[in-house]
């Protein structure tokens, strides 16, 4: 019998449903409250909704793009000018990842660079609530915060159970205004979390339950969410699928898709875009090592064609990126062939993720995979 551990890394309370935020009762009596959000969300209805609940809260809205250690340290410095009882992260993955670190380090003097790694955080004394406004990172479900180190440009992780929030609100109404292209790329990130964790060497029956249901929700709804962003039911399914992806990766981890994605992120390619274009190629690479486990995904994947083999599943993921408004090639995101060896070398530094991959992957393999991303798949015409 397999040996595995089940951790209890799950947010203590989760509220799910369209309009859920207006019904929030947790921590309404909290003393001093800090809301951390993306700059693009300031002056939006989403911020108005949270400030109606916490009218005296301070708002830190200096975040734009994916978080760097300089950005997170600036947010931390802001937070330390006061003594907050509750930190709320509202926004995309950047706002949530920043809020998590701020809540955890608020009472200390450490910088984020000092806690890159696993289990380096002391006990968190500030309560934390997370409210995603995109369906993608699943950050609200994970003990991870991914931050680009401003010193060397490398994306690094802070991993600690202290980053698991006290509560989460999954309110699809907050995601209605997401543009189609961002819905597609963040949705592909969520799908990657579910698929990668399902194929990870650390998958177990519990992570698979999250992965499978997440795959079902995301694959059934991603096209509809892109086509009609105003459909609350579809948006709700995407948000729940993204949350399940976060839970699945917390147990099983992501794999080579995320490992090869990080060097692209370093060069400004949005996280979901990089993952989306890599997913089919990595699955094709992994296929010989995990055909049976790929095939196990078939009942959960939405497909007009019958999925009769693992190769059909790989083809289906190629179809997703062909159909959705996401870039398919490095050319489309401004990455040139000359830098591929550098990308491959950097990807190999993501040892934690590569160790989860079902098929070993060397720098030579990584280079060959990046080369494939230079042109669209030939069968595409
Ligand atoms: Fe991701």
From TrEMBL:
Keywords, alphabetical: NAD, Oxidoreductase
Database matches in InterPro entries: ADH_Fe/GldA, ADH_Fe_C, ADH_Fe_CS, Alcohol_dehydrogenase_Fe
Domain Alcohol dehydrogenase iron-type/glycerol dehydrogenase GldA: 11-171
Pfam families: ADH_Fe_C (PF25137), Fe-ADH (PF00465)
GO MF, one annotated term: alcohol dehydrogenase (NAD+) activity
Domain of life: Bacteria
Domain Fe-containing alcohol dehydrogenase-like C-terminal: 183-373
Family in the record: Belongs to the iron-containing alcohol dehydrogenase family.
Listed name of the protein: Alcohol dehydrogenase class IV
Source organism per UniProt: Hydrogenispora ethanolica
């Amino acid at each position: 019998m397999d040996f595995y551990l089940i951790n209890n890394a799950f947010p203590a309370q989760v509220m799910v449903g369209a309009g859920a935020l207006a019904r929030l009762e947790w921590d309404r009596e909290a003393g001093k409250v800090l809301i951390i959000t993306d700059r693009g969300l300031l002056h939006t209805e989403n911020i108005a909704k949270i400030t109606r609940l916490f009218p005296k809260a301070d708002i830190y809205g200096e975040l734009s793009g994916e978080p760097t250690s300089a950005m997170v340290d600036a947010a931390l410095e802001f937070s330390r000018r006061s003594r907050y009882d509750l930190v709320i992260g509202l926004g995309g993955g950047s706002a949530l990842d920043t809020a998590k670190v701020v809540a955890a380090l608020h009472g200390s003097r450490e910088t984020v660079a000092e806690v890159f790694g696993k289990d380096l955080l002391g006990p968190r004394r500030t309560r934390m609530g997370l409210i995603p406004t995109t369906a993608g990172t699943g950050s609200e479900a994970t003990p991870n915060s991914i931050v680009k180190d401003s010193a060397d440009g490398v994306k690094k992780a802070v991993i600690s159970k202290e980053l698991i929030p006290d509560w989460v609100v999954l309110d699809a109404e907050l995601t209605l205004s997401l543009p189609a292209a961002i819905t597609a790329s963040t949705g592909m990130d969520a799908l990657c979390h579910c698929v990668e964790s399902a194929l990870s060497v650390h998958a177990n029956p519990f992570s698979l339950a999250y992965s499978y249901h997440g795959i079902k929700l995301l694959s059934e709804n991603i096209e509809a969410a892109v086509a009609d962003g105003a459909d609350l039911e579809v948006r709700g399914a995407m948000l729940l699928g993204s949350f399940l992806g976060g839970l699945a990766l917390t147990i099983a981890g992501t794999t080579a898709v995320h490992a090869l994605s990080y060097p692209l992120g370093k060069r400004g390619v949005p996280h979901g875009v990089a993952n989306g274009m890599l997913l089919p190629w990595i699955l094709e690479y992994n296929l010989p090592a995990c055909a049976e486990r790929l095939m196990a995904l078939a009942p959960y994947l939405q497909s007009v064609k019958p999925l009769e083999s693992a190769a059909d599943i790989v083809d289906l993921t190629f179809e997703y990126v062909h159909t959705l408004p996401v870039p398919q090639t490095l050319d489309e995101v401004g990455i040139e062939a000359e830098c591929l060896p550098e990308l491959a070398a950097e990807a190999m530094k993501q040892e934690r993720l590569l160790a989860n991959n079902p098929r070993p992957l060397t720098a030579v393999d990584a280079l060959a995979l990046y080369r494939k991303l230079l042109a669209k798949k030939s069968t595409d015409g």
